[in-house]
Structure formats: C-alpha cells, structure tokens
Amino acid sequence: MSTPLKLVITRTFNAPRELVFDCWTQDKHLARWGGAPEGMTAVMETKQVRAGGSYRVHLDRENGERFSVAGKYLEVLRPEKL
User: Fold this and answer.
1) Cβ neighbour number for residue 42 with a 10 Å cutoff
2) What is the C-alpha to C-alpha distance for residues 41 and 73, in angstroms, rounded to an integer?
3) What local confidence, expressed as pLDDT, does residue 68 receive?
4) Residues 6+ apart with CB under 8 A from 79
5) Distance separating alpha carbons of residues 3 and 40, to the nearest angstrom
6) C-alpha dihedral, 62 to 64 to 65 to 66, nearest 10°
7) What is the pLDDT of residues 12-32, one digit of tens each?
8) pTM for this one?
9) Residue 25 is inside which H or E element, if any?
C-alpha cells in the first residue's frame, strides 16, 4: 500500500494574512495570484473551501494547452491554515 502524498508549503509574504488567504481562496484574486507562469491563465473550476471540500484549477496556455491541479482541503482555519 502506498503512502498518500502530502504537500506542505511554507512562505513569508509582506502582506496581511487575511489577504494572502483570500488570494488562495477567492476567484477575483486567482487570475493575478494563482501561481500561473507567464503566458498562462489560472481558471478555477471547483472550489469548496471547507474541510473535506475539493478544488480543481486549470492552467491554460495561450496555445490552448491545459494543465489541471486538483485536491481536497483537509483543514481550513482562516487565515492560518488551508
């Protein structure tokens, strides 16, 4: 049996915690913040920001290629944990 993957990201930003949390969870911030590299656009398909909720984000290239990222929120504690 394989061990489930776990992603832990620790970063320090010169911004209020609430704004950083909102950038990860609100569509209005996604296009500017979503981590899409230059020449790509982040598009949120599914977002249920709650413990047990899921997300799916697409990264679209200008040439039509699409890359997708999906997962589940295990714990949500605004603005401390996501």
Assistant:
1) 19
2) 22
3) 92
4) 17, 18, 20, 21
5) 32
6) 90
7) 889 999 998 998 888 788 766
8) 0.69
9) helix 17-25
> What amino acid is encoded at 30 in this protein?
L
Cβ within 8 Å of residue 44, ≥6 positions away: 27, 30, 34, 55, 56, 57
Report helix, strand and coil shares of the chain as percent, to nearest 5: 20, 30, 50
Residues 69 and 42: their CA atoms lie apart, in Å, by 10
Instruction: Copy the structure tokens of residue 65.
Output: 């290629």
Q: Tokens 């996501």, residue? A: 82
Looking at this protein, which amino acid is placed at residue 3?
T
User: Beta partners for 43?
Assistant: 58
